[in-house]
Amino acid sequence: MSSKSQEVEALVGQKYRHGFITDIESDSLPPGLDEAVVAAISKKKHEPEFLLKWRLKAFRHWQTMTEPTWAHVHYKPIDYQDISYYSAPRAPANAPKSLDEVDPKLLATYEKLGIPLHERARLAGVAVDAVFDSVSVATTFKEKLGKAGVIFCSFSDAVRNHPELVERYLGSVVPPGDNFFAALNSAVFSDGSFVYVPPGVRCPMELSTYFRINAAKTGQFERTLIIAAEGASVSYLEGCTAPMRDENQLHAAVVELVALDDAQIKYSTVQNWYPGDENGLGGIYNFVTKRGECRGRNSKISWTQVETGSAITWKYPSCVLKGENSIGEFYSVAVANNYQQADTGTKMIHIGKNTKSTIVSKGISAGHAENTYRGLVKILPSASGARNFTQCDSLLMGPKCAAHTFPYMEVKNPTATVEHEASTSKIGEDQLFYCLQRGISAEDAVNMIVSGFCKVVFKELPMEFAVEAQNLLSVSLEGAVG
Amino acid sequence: MLEISDLTARVAGKEILNGVNLTVNAGEVHAIMGPNGSGKSTLAQVLAGREDYEVIRGSVTFEGRDLLAMRAEERARAGLFLGFQYPVEIPGVNNVYLLKAALNAKRKAAGEPEVDAYDFLALIRQKMKFMQMSETFLTRGVNEGFSGGEKKRNEVLQMLVLEPKLAILDETDSGLDIDALKVVSQGVNSLRDPKRAVVLVTHYQRLLDYVIPDQVHVLSGGRIVKSGDKSLAQELERRGYDWVMGAQVA
Description:
The structure holds 2 protein chains of 2 kinds. The relative contact order of chain A is 0.09. Chain A is globular. By secondary structure, chain A is of the alpha/beta class. Chain A contains 12 helices and 24 strands. Chain B has a single domain, classed as 3-Layer(aba) Sandwich (Rossmann fold), CATH 3.40.50.300. Chain B contains 8 helices and 12 strands. In chain B, helix 5 (148-162) packs parallel to helix 6 (178-190). Chains A and B meet through helix 10 and helix 11 of A and helix 2, strand 7, helix 3 and strand 8 of B.
């Protein structure tokens, strides 16, 4: 063992003497962040040494970085020493081996969320990996997927059972030092989902992860890594919720997607983190780095997101289009009500020849909310024949909200085609009155008009989630008009 | 059915209606004519419950109920229909979906069960055929990309599906070619019934060749200055609005 590791071990030991908080519900690290905490997380998860080193490198890099301030969002400085970086529901023994071993209380929580692991998932044919605070609770459908050769498991399991894949791909799309929040995540990430679809395999079902932040003063730092090998395809959906709390909670996730030759990845998000109350108290800070790399020829990555929650959203699911003829897509609905702030968009980096990207962003603002679209289309000299189409539409409800659009474009190849369309509209008094005059209530009318506005994005979602997204939208905008 | 008494209303501080009196009985068709800016559309909007208009005086009863105390959607569910002069586009919202929601809102208010999807489609197809509308209408957004004539046909289609007790049609004839005018008129006539009433707001006499009114009123300066039978419309066509307004001054 190197002297460095011994040092770390010693530190971990010290920390242990100060004691982990272990109460009835969860097993947590006390608030605070230093190398010992990073090492403690790694140790708790019985990680191989390469990962510990990787984490520590990221942590040291993070310490040299400053929080970004360019986003159009405002919040009080975050005290990173006041956050607990690990919280696990306390299991009777070790990790549950099947759903039957999962704490019934926990399952009831999912039930309440509308994500019953047992029944609905089975009926819907959706495999669910549920992350509760920091630990993956249960992964369904492992067997069926296993037969197809698809690996779908918690990140921790992947580290244990497929370390070579993790080592090869982890950080290959979002390097640990990519940005402040990605670096933080790289140092302290506790769990998440891992998907590997082998060459030529079409994943036989929709894969899904449900994230939930439960414990107070806990940050959630999950890490998702999806690899679609040559000719493989997979559709993946994540949903997110958190309980109502007065303090703000930090969520800094990293998602990496890798698509090799002829592979396709469709990644859909329905994000409903607690947005704070109507006066702007509490809510989740959702600072997330999501990036996919179309590494192979003819590969395709498609992001669809419906963002209704969080006090602050800072999120730019992006595509790096390296492979020739590769395709990147971004379809987004971002809703901000009350005092929510959303700064979201995408980056499309065209590197390979004849790469194509499509961006459709629909922003809805109500109450005092601020909704910003920020996008970058970058076409490098190598990307001959590259094409991009961008459409950004904003819908304003009421007089006190705001919408901003910051489309950045860097085109360094003269054969490229870049198109941009943008519009801002108010929810029309005329439209509303038209519906009222037909006997439709104001609430139904607003839902109808907003759904119509979002339709092009919703139709990109897997069927069963499109309905959920629509319902979420109406809940988020309750009382926004009338 | 409809009793308007001394109705005075303003929009953006400007008085547009200035003491309108009008009685419409069940089974009747009334035409309200008048020059531009006389308050015709304002009257239609006030009756439908548009909030931008402030009623400062007068009363309106609809089947014995105080219409002005009802919200716009309540008036609609009680059987008051406004055919809009400029039907608005609602992108992404399917035509049939809106119409079904409207019909169900009305049925729910009346304590009836929601319409069966299959039955509804059959009903709407039948009415569409009657209005000579193409099947593509079923998949399009509300008035999205419709021509002026298509929008007006769509208004009448909605009216036929919702079967209102009182239909107020605000310049439904404007912008229609002669064939479309005939189809629209046929739609309006099919709704004539001893239990229903129709108020046609129109600028021209043309429509009244196809939908024969029981009474014709001339609105000018925010009040009804002359009423008569069908021949009044013809006289107006011949002599122009100046004739009535001149008579008013004299």
